[in-house]
């Protein structure tokens, strides 16, 4: 995500060599979603570069590869899982959680497979599960069964809040695309562990995105007061303003909790120096 083209030259310096792009991003935000790992397990040298560009307090929430979660549906994927875990090892404490995003067809009848998979995972990592099957949101019994499976191994349930996106018809190409791809499920805001993770998707309008996250500002502040350490990811359909919005969200939480540490001073997108000449 730190290579998102609309950010280059606007929020982040451009051009930057690949080995410096995450370092620049980390001056804006202290966490990142590792979505690319869903499509391919990176080379270990790439992961070593990520570790070298970030401090030990930086948070990676890395998505398990698609062959494990969607193709094999958590069964018979030992080799792929072992390879992935070995590859991300250089991140050390930066691996805040491994993110198990399940397909929309993965429903209550599949909870046995999820329970067995989670029990077999090494305890050296934290795990967080994102479900998209509507039954987990509409059926209290299904939700309760899922919560018990997760609580049994100390795993978190990641809500993906798309309520603001679907409040009214889309008004941009990016919003129209999101309408066809993102899950339309009710908002859920209960934490199971001391490290809750929120994924919030707003609109391409800054004002509507900010209006839609008011609920999460209060929730995040409440979790912090309880001693939890939440991680909140702010998205819009085009993500053009996501860096600025993430910092604004943090500022709004900090307005309720002044003792919350500020984010680092962001790196300027402008060159450090330039020479002016007549010719």
TrEMBL record:
InterPro entries: DUF72, UPF0759_sf. It comes from the Bacteria. This is DUF72 domain-containing protein. It comes from Planotetraspora thailandica.
């Amino acid at each position: 995500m730190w290579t998102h083209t609309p950010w280059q030259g606007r929020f982040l310096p451009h051009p930057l060599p690949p080995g410096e792009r995450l370092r620049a991003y980390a001056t804006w935000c202290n966490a990142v979603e590792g979505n690319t790992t869903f499509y391919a397990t990176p080379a270990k040298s790439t992961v070593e570069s990520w570790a070298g560009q970030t401090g030990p307090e930086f948070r990676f929430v890395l998505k398990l590869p698609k062959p494990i979660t969607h193709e094999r549906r958590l069964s018979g994927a030992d080799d792929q899982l072992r390879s992935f875990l070995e590859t991300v090892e250089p991140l050390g404490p930066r691996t805040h959680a491994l993110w198990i995003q399940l397909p929309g067809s993965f429903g209550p009848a599949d909870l046995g497979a999820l329970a067995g998979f989670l029990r077999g995972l090494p305890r050296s990592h934290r795990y967080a599960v994102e479900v998209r099957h509507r039954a987990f949101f509409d059926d209290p019994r299904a939700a309760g069964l899922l919560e018990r499976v997760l609580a049994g191994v100390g795993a978190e349930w990641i809500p993906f809040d798309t309520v603001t996106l679907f409040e009214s018809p889309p008004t941009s190409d990016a919003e129209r695309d999101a309408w066809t791809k993102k899950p339309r499920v009710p908002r859920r805001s209960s934490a199971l562990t001391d490290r809750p993770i929120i994924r919030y998707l707003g609109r391409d309008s800054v004002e509507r995105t900010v209006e839609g996250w008011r609920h999460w500002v209060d929730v995040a502040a409440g979790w912090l007061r309880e001693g939890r350490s939440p991680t909140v990811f702010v998205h819009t359909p085009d993500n053009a303003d996501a860096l600025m919005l993430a910092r604004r969200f943090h500022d709004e939480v900090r307005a309720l909790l002044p003792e919350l540490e500020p984010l680092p001073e962001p790196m300027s997108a402008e060159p450090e120096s330039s020479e002016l000449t007549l010719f």
